[in-house]
Amino acid sequence: MRMDRATERMPHIADDRAAVDPVVDPADRSAGSTRSAATRPADDMPPAAEGRRRGRPGGVRIVCSLLVVASYVVAAVIGPVLLKYDPVATDLSVRLKPPGTRLPDGSIAVFGTDQVGQDVLAQMAQGARVSITVGVATLVLAGLIGVSFGLLAGYFGGWLDAVLMRLADIQLTFPSILLAIFIASILGPSVVNVVIVLAISNWVTFARVTRSQVLGIKRRDFVDATRTLGARTWHLVIRTILPSCTASILVVATVVLGHVILAEASLSFLGLGTPASTPSWGVTIANGRDYLSNAWWISTIPGIGLAVLVISFGVLGDALRDRFDPRMKSL
Amino acid sequence: MDNARDNAMGNASTAAAADCVVATRPLLSVRDLTVQFRTRAGTITAVDGVSFDLAEGETLAVLGETGSGKSVMAQALMGLVPRPAGRVTGGQIVYDGTDLLSRPLSYTRKLCGTELAMVFQDPLSSLNPVFRVGAQIGELFRRHRGASRAEARRKAIELMDRVGIPAAARRVDDYPHQFSGGMRQRVMIAMALALRPRLLIADEPTTALDVTVQAQIMALLAELKAEHRMSLILITHDLGLVAGVADRVMVMYAGRVVETGGLREVYETLAHPYTRGLMASIPALQGQRERLTPIAGSPPDLLRLPGGCSFQPRCRFATDICRIRRPELAPVPGRPESHRAACHHVEEVIAHGVPG
Amino acid sequence: MASQGDPLLSVRDLHTSFPIRSALLRREVGRVQAVSGVSFDLRPGRTLGLVGESGSGKTTLARTIIGLERPESGQVLFDGRDLFAMSGAELRRTRRQIQMIFQDPYSSLNPRLTVEQIISEAWVIHPGVVPRNRWSAEVKDLLARVGLNPDHADRYPHQFSGGQRQRIGIARALALRPRLVICDEPVSALDVSVQAQVLNLLIDLQADLGLTYLFISHDLSVVRHVSDEVAVMYLGKIVETGTVDQIFATPVHPYTQALLSAVPVPRPWDAPPRQQIVLAGDIPSPVSPPSGCRFRTRCWKAQPRCAEDEPALTDRLADHRSACHFPELPAHTATASAARP
To answer: How many beta-carbon pairs under 8 angstroms link B with C?
Structure first.
């Protein structure tokens, strides 16, 4: 069935006006003329006016959140180099010192020290490296699986779509914590296993978003046009449809990244994530659990740091969606 | 129902309307209306100093293409200009002696439905898809006339019958998507005319419809207009559609009025190069098949309008003065005073001959 | 190879329909009969105008011919060979010669590709048609040919106006040097002033490149302007076909007459007075079309015979065919008695 210009709202299913009117030949003039009437650029309204809802395209939000994220990445890369962290080196003489204490070797413990005398800031820098690595690796893995499944389900439809989407539904009903426990108990805690667990829990969002995008795009005229040129399935899916989905996928990715980092911290907090020797933020927060009353900074400061990063990703994703949405509409 | 009707294609409606146009105060008087939009890329003047009168019982056709400002003008009349980006920045809209722009928006809103009504281009997006059609029509009676639910329903069925929807009593409970395009448009017309407004604005009412259905709808509009003694502003890009119903024509380009006058006057004289070009762009349904002489160039970019006459980049009669000085709407020499055109070279344009 | 006199495109008794599935179990509960037994010939270098309104099936017919839909039955012969009986390389080679121009300039171009990429995509798909090092030059050539500035090849579609985008679409259709171009409402979404430009372009291209057109439109004035022959469709069937002069000057089928009388004319006082026919009711559902003659529910001439007996497309006046039991034949025709009961 032909469809008129699809409004690309993500992650919901795109409009399908023609399907709604049962009286008329789906491929004929009424659908076409509704299209033509609707696509005459709102008669006198210039396309730029469509963006009138927002004075700016979320540029400030994008810049701010990117700055925050970038500073974390820099900290993750440079931090551990500047602030040496040795998981087994303990110095009990400087344990549980509050933030700003001058240490015997002359340095300042900016965020204090933990229960074995390790500098909390150094742990955080190291932890940033772990968390971000896990986050990105999970994102890539979940993204690959999810986007592929979404493309297949959306493009081919039919039983393949049904099977893949039921798989997604099953996946969603399965609590990720349970899965993590299951895998951790079999394979033991390690960074790789955490990535696997999180990827399995998070591919569904990618799949669903990709699928709904594909459903909307595959009916657009330019896909038909490429088909009439003689393009075969591979070309159509990868080189014609997929590029139009990337904007939405990118937006989803930023949101999922924040979610994954948080999930990894939770798993580590429960002891199911990275081994205790790799101080991801979850581990650090977990370690400080027993000292909340007398040394609150061990858990709280990494917790705040984590929260700020996740919020930044959320804001970034939000702003990116707003940035991409009106441009799609003006097409 | 209608079958074949022998009706000399012409101005039966014009003759009747001419009798109705009495020399009293016009129903609607617009002066120097200006509407602007603020966009990221700059300010756009969608309607630039438009003036016209509309008498009771008269039909005015507003002709224009993309960027002409005709739809925005209609929205301004009804108080529907989208805010905050759009603003009416100047002029007067004097309806029945009162300047609507000097009153708060609530005044205009109160007139909507009762005195002023509008029919839109795409009924599928203008009707609320989650309410039954009868409820949508009936709501007008309940809100403005204090009718009871049963009374409103009765009136809705009556109206649907009047606009030619078969089995109205049964279809009053249907949803908009259960109707075909033509039927939906009839529902829209029923809603617009429910409270017997004095002025109906029809914005491209038949553009999305098949040509046979279009004929039905235009016939219906003509009937209802005569029955209710209504004034009609018909907004369209279709010169042929106008010819069947309009008393007067106003041609707009890039937010300005470029030509206006009685239907036959304008169509036969074609004093403005744009109107002339439009006429020459339409393939003939009868007679010789000649090569079309299209208007050069593209529709105007409202962000980058040229100085002087906005049509000048596309005009083959353009000279230096056209690039500098904006032509004002002035009576065409040698024609009745009501026929005006905004062009520096009107005589030359007319002398060029009417395109086939 | 077929000789010059043979039709380039021959459609034989084509049927295309779409299933309607129930919401829950997706079982087929009915079929939309979009194209029901359409046959026609199109000779090389000619333009056949296909006219019809909603539900006529003209768009589905076009999409079936170009291969975007599969027919239920019937044949589409290109150069004498059935397209749906071919496969593999031969099919791809043949389909290259049939291209399409789409209606909506705002959605028929991939917004992520530059104009050059859009046009050269054809050569990516069919390597060998144009050598790689000549792509840029060919693109510029094509752009110039359709009246666009060749230097704009690196721009994106949203930087062009509707009429310009349509020209890009035309350039893309020409990239594979087709012989048959199906134009699906190519000017319907354009402003009147731009329509004329694009129409002139299409006519010029036909003359320059020897193209054959299947021109689909609901706009009769436009169809009259570009076509040599015209076929009028109603609810999946062709009801009348003939040369453009025959159809427009002496329409025989009641639907054609109604259609022509409904088209608004800019200067009706100049034109000869027309009989004003306003059809009753709406187009019937293509899921269950009326028995016998499909037009009978809106036809003022309908008799009981029309419900029982479906009229065949009969040639009554020198290649001017109509499907009606009571056609209005021109008074001067000697063979008028053929269809009267």
So the answer is: 155
